[in-house]
Amino acid sequence: MQKTLQTSKAERISYGLYFAGQNFYYMIVASFMTLFLLNKGLSEATVAAILIIPKIWDAVNDPIFGVILDKCHFKNGRFIPWLKISWFALPISTFLIFSMPENISQTAKIVWAVIGYVLWDTSYTMCDAPIFALSTTMSDNVEERTKILSLGRLFATVACIVATLAIESLYMSTGWTYLTLGICLLSMLLMLPVLFLAKERSVGTAEKDPTLKEMFRALMGNKYLVAFLISYFVIASTMFVEILIPIFAQYVYGNTDVGTVLIGICMVPMIVVAAILPAVIKKIDKFKIYIFCLLLFVLTSVLQYLVDFNNVVVLYISMFLRAIGYGGYNVLIYMFIPDIVEYGHYITGQRQEGIFFSLQTFVTKLSAAVVSSFSLILLSAVGFSSSNVNAVGIVETSAAEGFWGVFTLVPAVGTLVGMVILIRYYKLRDKDVQEMSEKNHSQKEKN
To answer: Which of 32, 124, 320, 376 could make an S-S bridge to 48, C-beta 3.0–4.6 Å?
Structure first.
């Protein structure tokens, strides 16, 4: 018997719109900041350092914010107030990064980029962990949460497509400053409705707030959280697809239109997966679907390595096949932390959405920095350099072939390792989580 939905349609749509706006910010920073800094004349090694240094701050910032999120209770909610703060902070920090002046020294550019990135990173933490955690308080029905999160991923995917295609096609003609300003204004508009429409229903606070020692003990005792985050980090840190496509198009193909098409091809399967996922999960456990998508990505990545990337038709077809598994990965990766929250609550009696989702945010941002830095280090190792191009602005054949190996094979290896970790150590399934959620909810009502 299907449970009555606890959330309204407007509430769910506003939740999805928030992810749309958030992902406009995320895409321009995560996928295009590397290209932006290369365009500003900084070397691959310098850009790699710029992207990884702020993660030292992240190592402190994200876990602390998770603890604050769990222990801080505002009058009008636990999570929505943080979304309101980040609504102002994100556009300011994003615009700061991409408004770097042209006529400053290399040292000044490095300082500007690091400061801007640290501020953006902090602002993103204040929105990402709370928006995911909000889904666990909007409803205590696991199926409804999946519907809410799937809608969020659907809107996020559409935003990723629109943002990526727009940025890829406009940055050379419009310029980074005006393009970023437009993205910030649009994102603020999209992220506004949830601040007024979303409701926190199932908060589940304990009678006495746990101490920091008790919280971290519960955290380290959650074996599924540890297994999931390690797997996620390994996969995401080698997932070079989106980060390298713009560089591939400009410096290997010499045609940014190719990059626009490739990114569009990557995004289409995400829309399909996000749209059909709630119906499919009713029949097939999402863990099985996720593992299938990872395996498909591994196999098609190896296949793409074997094709001739100079043949544009073959390039597009192989990219589409690879994008099916890639799209499934991108949609499903954010569906597991709510389940782990329920498991943690079930075994410890403590509901720690804040620290769990902050750790997800930390791994997301850490892997985004690592994937950018790691990809640039590997590209340098195979002889690729954006400053070493021929008369038409593209790299030599040997560098292009090395680039292709990094683009296809390294993500396949990382995904395979992450998949093995999950199969071996992650045993939570949808049926188990629903039973845990019902028991947690009934226990809360007794208290």
So the answer is: 376
- Burial 204-225, CB ≥16 within 10 A → b, else e: beeeeebeeeebeebbeebebb
Secondary-structure breakdown of the chain: helix, strand, coil percentages, each rounded to the nearest 5: 80, 0, 20
Please return the burial class of 282, using the count of CB atoms within 10 Å of its CB with bins 0-12, 13-18 and 19+: exposed
Q: What is the DSSP letter of 335?
A: G
168, 256 Cβ separation under 8 angstroms = yes
pLDDT, residue 185, reads 97
Distance CA 351, CA 200 (A): 14
DSSP secondary structure string, 104-169? Answer: S-HHHHHHHHHHHHHHHHHHHHHHHHHHHHHHHHH-S-HHHHHHHHHHHHHHHHHHHHHHHHHHHH
Q: What is the pLDDT of residue 208?
A: 46
- How buried is 390 (Cβ within 10 angstroms: 0-12 exposed, 13-18 middle, 19+ buried)? exposed
Task: Yes or no: say if 352 and 218 are a contact pair by the CB < 8 Å rule.
Answer: yes
Closest CA to 156 of 15, 323, 257: 15
Compute the distance between CA of residue 207 and CA of residue 213 in angstroms, rounded to an integer. Answer: 17
295, two tokens: 């395996």
Per-residue pLDDT tens digits for 362-400: 788 778 778 878 888 898 888 887 666 664 457 788 888
Could you tell me the two tokens for 207? 């009678």
pTM value?
0.72
**Predicted local distance difference test score (pLDDT) of residue 121:** 86
pLDDT at 421: 96
Transcribe 400-416 into DSSP letters: HHHHHHHHHHHHHHHHH
Of 331, 319, 248, 308, the C-alpha closest to 38 is: 248
Q: How far is CA 269 from CA 19, 30, 113, 262, in A?
A: 18, 20, 33, 12
Low-confidence stretches of the chain (pLDDT beneath 70): 1-3, 55-56, 58-63, 66, 70, 202-219, 386-393, 443-447
Q: What is the Cα–Cα distance from 170 to 251, expressed in whole angstroms?
A: 17
Q: Which domains does the chain have, with CATH numbers?
A: 11-200+209-446 (1.20.1250.20)
27, 222 Cβ separation under 8 angstroms: no
